[in-house]
Amino acid sequence: MKRKAIVLDMNDNVASALLDLKAGEQVKVYKPGGEIKEITLIQVIQLGHKFALENIDRGEDVIKSGMSMGSATQAIGQGAHVHTQNVSNEHDDTIVEQIVN
């Protein structure tokens, strides 16, 4: 069975699509550590884009690869597209600084 999404860290609250996914599609996600979640997508998710594994409250950190990539600027429902329309990039400079140094 071909995996449709990847989760990089057991603490992540988003997954990245490994192919274009349709709204209403059910995606089985395997989290490191063995947890398996089945998520129904509520929006189209393009290859490489992220979707929420759980409800993410406004102001809550969006976690990918075990690190905060910003905070939700609005509530994000499970299965919703997670991108610049609903995540601040306040942490971008910090992440770039960590990589460069």
Describe this structure in words.
This protein is mainly beta. 9% of the residues lie in helices and 30% in strands. The protein is built from one helix and eight strands. The strands form three sheets. The chain has a four-stranded antiparallel beta sheet with strand order 1-2-5-8, with no helix packed on it. The protein starts with a strand and ends with a helix. The C terminus is likely disordered.
Question: Can you lay out the helices and strands and say which pair or pack?
Answer:
Layout: E1 5-6, E2 14-17, E3 26-30, E4 36-40, E5 50-52, E6 61-64, E7 67-71, E8 81-82, H1 92-100
Distance between the termini: 40 Å
Side-by-side strand order of the widest sheet: 1-2-5-8
The average pLDDT is 89
Q: CATH topology, anyone? A: Archaeosine Trna-guanine Transglycosylase, Chain: A, domain 4
Low-confidence stretches: 95-101
Rounded to an integer in angstroms, the radius of gyration calculated over CA atoms is 13 Å
Quaternary: single chain
What about the largest sheet? 4 strands, antiparallel
Helix content: under 10%
Elements, N to C (H/E): EEEEEEEEH
User: Which class of secondary structure composition applies to the elements?
Assistant: mainly beta
Q: Total number of helical segments?
A: 1
Number of beta strands: 8
> What is the overall shape?
globular
Indicate the CATH architecture.
Roll
Any idea how many domains? 1
Strand coverage percent? 25-35%
CATH class: Mainly Beta
